[in-house]
Specification:
It is found in: Cell inner membrane; Cell membrane. The chain contains ten helices and no strands. By secondary structure, it is an all-alpha fold. Helix 9 packs antiparallel against helix 10.
Length: 222
C-alpha cells in the first residue's frame, strides 16, 4: 500500500483566522473559572485546617469528590444534569466556567492548606506575643508568606485549567477545539488544523509560564 502524505503548511496557516475567535472564549472560561475557583479554594482550604472537626470533613468531602471525578463528567453533569434538577437550561459558557471553578477550587483548596501549614508555628506565636489578634496574625503575617509560596502550584493549576477547556467542545462552547472541529468539517484538514490548535494552546500556556516565573521571582525577592 503506497502511503504518501505531506503536511500542508498552507492549509495549517489558512486555519488561523478561523481558530483565533476561539482564544477569547478559552481565556474567558479558564480565567473566569479560576478566579471563582481561587475564592472557593481559599474557603475550603481554610476549612481543612479548622479546629472544628465537622468543618474539616465538609471540606474534605468537597475536595475528594471534585478531585476524584473527571472534569469532563463534571461539565456534562452541570450542563445536562443540573437543568433537570433546576427545571431550566444552563448556558454552555456558564457551565464551562462553573466546571473550571469547582474543579480548580478543589485543587486550590489543598494548595491553600499546604501553603498556610508550611509557615512555621513560631511565626504565629511571635505575632500573638506582639499583641496581634489571631485574625491579624493570619492576615498580616501568615497569609502573605503562604501566598508567596503558593504561586508555583497555583500557576500549574492555571495551566491545567486552560488545557481542560479543550474538553468543553462536547457541550458546544466555541473555544479553540470547537472552532477547529467546525473548520475541519468543511476542509477535512484534520492534521493541519489540530496542529495549529496545539500551537495556540502552547503559545498561551508558554506565555503564562513566563509571566508566572517573573511573578515568582518578584514574590521571592519581595
Amino acid at each position: 500500500m503506497d502511503f504518501d502524505f505531506q503536511f500542508d503548511w498552507a492549509a495549517a496557516f489558512a486555519s488561523i483566522p478561523y481558530l483565533l475567535p476561539g482564544i477569547p472564549w478559552t481565556l474567558l472560561i479558564s480565567f473566569g473559572g479560576l478566579a471563582i475557583g481561587f475564592f472557593i479554594g481559599i474557603f475550603f482550604g481554610l476549612l481543612r485546617i479548622s479546629p472544628i472537626r465537622w468543618l474539616r470533613w465538609v471540606a474534605l468531602c468537597y475536595i475528594e469528590v471534585f478531585r476524584g471525578t473527571p472534569i469532563l463528567v463534571q461539565v456534562l453533569f452541570i450542563f445536562y444534569g443540573l437543568p433537570q434538577l433546576l427545571g431550566s437550561p444552563i448556558n454552555a459558557l456558564v457551565a464551562g466556567i462553573a466546571a473550571i471553578a469547582v474543579n480548580s477550587g478543589a485543587y486550590i483548596s489543598e494548595i491553600v492548606r499546604g501553603g498556610v501549614q508550611s509557615i512555621e508555628r513560631g511565626q504565629r506565636e511571635a505575632s500573638l506575643s506582639l499583641g496581634l489578634s489571631r485574625a491579624q496574625a493570619f492576615r498580616y503575617v501568615i497569609w502573605p508568606q503562604a501566598l508567596r509560596r503558593m504561586i508555583p502550584p497555583l500557576g500549574n493549576q492555571a495551566i491545567i485549567s486552560i488545557k481542560d477547556t479543550s474538553l468543553f467542545s462536547v457541550i458546544g462552547v466555541s473555544e479553540l477545539v470547537r472552532q477547529g472541529q467546525i473548520y475541519i468539517a468543511t476542509t477535512f484538514n484534520a492534521l493541519e488544523v489540530y496542529f495549529m490548535v496545539a500551537v495556540m494552546y502552547l503559545a498561551i500556556t508558554w506565555t503564562l509560564s513566563i509571566l508566572l516565573r517573573l511573578l515568582e521571582r518578584r514574590g521571592i525577592a519581595g
